[in-house]
Amino acid sequence: MKILITGGTTFVSKFAAEYYVKQGNEVFVLNRGSREQVKGVSPIVADRLQLGNRLKGEHFDLILDITAYTQEHIRALLDSGVTFDDYIFISSSAVYPETNPQPFTEEQICGYNAVWGDYGMNKLKAERYLQARVPNAYILRPPYFYGIYENLYREAFVFDCAMRDRAFYLPQNGGMKLQFFHVRDLCRFIDALLDKYPDQRVFNVGNKESVTVKEWVELCYRAAGKSARFVNVDKNVPQRDYFCFYDNEYVLDVTKQSALMPDALSLEQGLQEEFLWYKDNLDSIYNRKPYMEYIDQHLVKQS
Fold this sequence. Notes:
The chain is α/β, with parallel strands linked by helices. It has two domains: 2-145 and 182-204, Rossmann fold (3-Layer(aba) Sandwich), CATH 3.40.50.720; 152-178 and 209-249 and 266-299, UDP-galactose 4-epimerase, domain 1, CATH 3.90.25.10. Helices cover 32% and strands 18% of the residues. It contains nine helices and 13 strands. The protein has helices at 11-22, 71-78, 118-133, 155-163, 183-196, 213-223, 255-260, 267-278, 291-299, and strands spanning 2-6, 26-31, 42-45, 59-65, 83-90, 138-141, 144-146, 168-171, 177-178, 180-182, 202-204, 211-212, 230-233. Helix 2 packs parallel to helix 3 (118-133), helix 4 (155-163) packs across helix 6 (213-223) and helix 6 crosses helix 8.
């Protein structure tokens, strides 16, 4: 296929670009050229909001839109003069209000989520605009992505704690649920969509099983060859000061995804793979949060 991927230089879009190059596709990436490009891609260096004639007359078998966060991002690409056969947009589970019954299903009403705020609403507006312009587009709503090329300080934070033999400061009793999806499984599901072309156009994607925060930390420590020791932190301490996820528990129903792609990488295996990559790429995190500093200054004495 001839594929256009928006982004292509960080985390999900970088993994996708590399994945589809390795499959023998002709992969173009649209980005501002500020970071190293994946080997084998054809870069289109431009701001997607200022494309001019860069894409006019170009045709792609697939547009894989990973970096659209607003309606304007979608509009600019569709108005660029580009044509395509298929369009897949990576949206977000933040489009579901936190007040909806869980697990969230694709049929539920979407709207404002107080935890995610404008991010979720902008993704929802982008979805609706795309559906109006391209009714046969596919929209995917993931939970938390993980895997190699991760550039957010999430798994890396726990890996750092493990490698330094630190006790892990756990929000309350660590019972909050988290749901993940490996970036390779995202690409595999896209393959399944393009193979089977289901009538349904919106899919929740993610692992069938959620894990508690404590279970996730234990798996991260195990991937690093360590055993976790825990200190429980009172609920009155702002969670984001010392921990890498918001105090927000939700679960997606991924039954429809599983019907098309029954198997997914186990979280344990995926975290082991990510750790092996991370320990050789410690500089991959663009914005390390000072969680350890906060713990050392405010929580160690209390424990």
